[in-house]
Write a structure and sequence with these properties.
Blueprint lengths: L2 H13 L12 E3 L2 E7 L1 E3 L6 E10 L4 E8 L6 E6 L4 E7 L4 E5 L2 E7 L1 E10 L8 E12 L3 E12 L5 E2 L2 H10 L5 E9 L2 E5 L8 E4 L11 E3 L2 E5 L8 E7 L5 E8 L5 H15 L6 H14 L4 H31 L13 H18 L14 H23 L7 H9 L3 H24 L12 H29 L15 E2 L2 H10 L4 E6 L4 H9 L4 H9 L3 E6 L5 H9 L7 E5 L7 E3 L5 H9 L2
Parallel strand pairs: 14-20, 21-23, 22-23
Antiparallel strand pairs: 1-2, 2-4, 3-13, 4-10, 5-9, 6-11, 7-10, 8-9, 11-12, 14-15, 15-18, 16-19, 17-18, 19-20, 22-24, 24-25
Length: 612
């Protein structure tokens, strides 16, 4: 036995089966392969939110293992992370670009020789100062003509002290090679028994690997000019097409393409307009509309021209804000950010800022002071000197606080709009803004209607003091949302009054659908979504609903979009949605869900779920 072996043996006596922090992991032998597991931290602190692991495989010559879509045969690798205290939540596996292996008549998407599979892991609160022990059970398939499964268990024990990173070169390399985001590019349509993908890539692809679960033949597509044709293997609803385009020089691009809209653009515009109009009635908007009401009441005393000017200014503020949000969404999505309506409420800085604005407004309503800034148009001095400017920024503010709400018609319209080109998206969001501003645009066309409003008087002071309550409540609520965003992630459903939810993942949902034994209900929600919270309180906490779910053995998933979550964003896109709430109901044995309305009552919910 050489000195290195003796040293390794002595160290193992002290360390046991756990991984030695900071040490380079050794390869272990498995069938036709060798494997080792890397970990990104040698120590973590109580404040650590995430860490990473990486499974490295070294395969025998002529043997291969598989991508997430293995192709016509094979199986993707599995990494199962478990800890005794349940503080770890594993994310998805990030795969590098595969190669195509043809063994007639089968096609596989696979890797040869060396490959690294990366996974990020969320870490919950580690307030207790103790070592974190966990294990990773890995499973992979190695094939040539025959296939051999391999199983490996990797134990880790990490001290909870001062956070310390390790092996960063390995993780930087793995992350640079991994496919993390599918960036929007092009569109597709179904023609007879083929899917036709029309791209706008900066290079000419020589091959395209189809992502998993899309019902397409894995054979090489017919690529010509700026399009590629794929044979459809089994017809299934498909709203987003994903794949990896590969060029001659090894360059590749992970893309997602939206289906050419089946909803006529005129109908999308009508739905957007109606959604914006109804948005005025949602609880998140009503308190701010009182600001505009006070402005109009004062404007009537100065003549029709002032009424028209302030109404148009408010409408411009609202419409331009919607267009700006659409443009920002388009830019961020083009850089691979998977976001949708209300994305700004996933930012603690934005939410805290809005909470402070509402707090100032609420105290202003009590008459403690006048806000003499153009962001709101309260106070006689501001109204007289800069009424139009105040109205414009009131329109901006109204749109910002409308973010937590999704009105009927809005979800479908925005989902389709964001899945199409930039012009389509901007047009739809403009229609949304016009609908939102429409009640005040009426006053610009016919200023005399403002005379129907009460004249200025003591009632305004009384109403202001009454409006303190919803304004102050909104400030407290936004403060609570900011805490939800910054506090350590919790993976346990804490609301015992509501249903006993299962944490959503695409993999868990697909597994339950494949089993086909139980009906499934999926609740896409967020803490900052007022429509969602109303349904949570009035519907999902109703004993009749809970008893019905239990009696019918329905599996209930909660997809919490409070924080930015790419997996949930992609799942929403599958159903042409870019906002929450979204409610899906899968009958037992069915692969396609029924989409329920955004606004529910207990009786409507039970009726929809009871319908055959």
């Amino acid at each position: 036995m050489n000195k290195a072996s003796i040293l390794t043996f002595i160290i193992s006596l002290f360390v046991g089966s756990g991984a030695l922090a900071g040490a380079t992991p050794e390869f272990k032998d498995y069938p036709k392969s060798r494997a080792r597991m890397w970990i990104s931290h040698s120590a973590i602190s109580a404040a650590t939110k995430s860490m990473s692991i990486a499974l490295e495989l070294d395969l025998d010559e002529d043997w291969h293992t598989y991508w997430e879509n293995p192709g016509d045969s094979g199986a993707a690798p599995i990494l199962d992370v478990s800890s005794k205290n349940g503080v770890l939540t594993p994310g998805q596996i990030f795969y590098p670009k595969p190669i195509r292996i043809n063994i007639n008549p089968l096609t596989s998407f696979a890797y040869e020789r060396r490959v690294i599979f990366l996974m990020d892991i969320d870490v919950a609160d580690l307030s207790a100062k103790s070592d974190l022990a966990f294990k990773v059970e890995a499973e992979w398939l190695v094939c040539r003509v025959q296939c051999i499964p391999a199983f490996g268990t990797f134990d880790f024990k990490i001290p909870v002290d001062k956070e310390s990173l390790q092996h960063q070169e390995i993780f930087q390399t793995a992350r640079s090679e991994a496919i993390k985001n599918f960036v929007p590019n092009g569109s597709f349509e179904i023609q007879d028994n083929e899917l036709v993908y029309k791209h706008s890539l900066v290079f000419d692809p020589t091959d395209i690997f189809v992502s998993q679960g899309q019902g397409l033949d894995n054979a090489e597509p017919k690529i010509q000019d700026a399009s590629a044709r794929f044979k459809i293997e089994n017809k299934k609803p498909l709203s987003v097409f994903r794949g990896i385009a590969v060029g001659d020089d090894g360059e590749f691009f992970a893309f997602e393409a939206s289906k050419t809209s089946q909803m006529p653009i005129l109908l999308v515009i009508v739905f957007s307009f109606l959604g914006g109009l109804i948005l005025n009635l949602m609880p998140c908007v009503l308190p701010v509309l009182s600001l505009k009401l006070f402005g109009l009441v004062n404007a009537t005393q100065k003549g029709a021209q002032h009424v028209r000017l302030e109404s148009v200014a408010y409408a411009l503020g609202a419409i331009l804000s919607f267009v700006l949000i659409a443009a920002l969404l388009l830019v961020l999505r083009s850089f691979g950010q998977e976001i949708g309506w209300g994305f700004q409420l996933q930012s603690p800085v934005f939410v805290i800022s809005m909470s402070l604005v509402f707090l100032l407004l609420s105290f202003n309503f009590l008459g403690l002071y006048e806000i003499n800034i153009p962001f709101v148009n309260l106070g006689q001095k501001l109204t007289q000197k800069s009424g139009a400017k105040g109205s414009f920024f009131t329109g901006v503010l109204s749109v910002l606080v409308a973010s937590p709400c999704t009105a009927p018609f809005m979800g479908a319209a925005m989902g389709v709009a964001l899945s199409q080109g930039a012009l389509f998206t901007l047009t739809s969001f403009t229609a949304l803004g016009v609908g939102f501003a429409f009640p005040f645009l009426i006053f610009s066309v016919s200023p005399s209607l403002a005379n129907l409003l009460p004249r200025p008087g003591e009632w305004m002071n009384t109403l202001k003091k009454l409006m303190f309550v919803p304004m102050f409540a909104a400030s407290l609520w936004l403060g609570w949302i900011s805490w939800q965003l910054v506090k350590p992630a919790s993976h346990v459903e804490a609301n015992s009054k509501s249903l006993e939810w299962t944490r959503f993942s695409s993999q868990a949902l697909a597994k339950e659908i494949k089993t086909g034994k139980k009906a499934i209900f999926v609740n896409f929600t967020a803490d900052w979504c007022l429509s969602c919270k109303v349904n949570d309180s009035l519907v999902f906490s109703d004993p009749k609903v809970k008893n019905f779910i239990k009696a019918n053995n329905i599996v209930v998933f909660k997809a919490d979009w409070t924080r930015r979550d790419s997996e949930i964003t992609r799942e929403l896109a599958k159903y042409d949605r870019a906002s929450v709430p979204l409610y899906l109901f899968f009958e037992a044995g069915q692969h396609s869900p029924r989409i329920l309305p955004e606004l529910l009552t207990s009786s409507l919910f039970l009726e929809l779920l009871s319908k055959e």
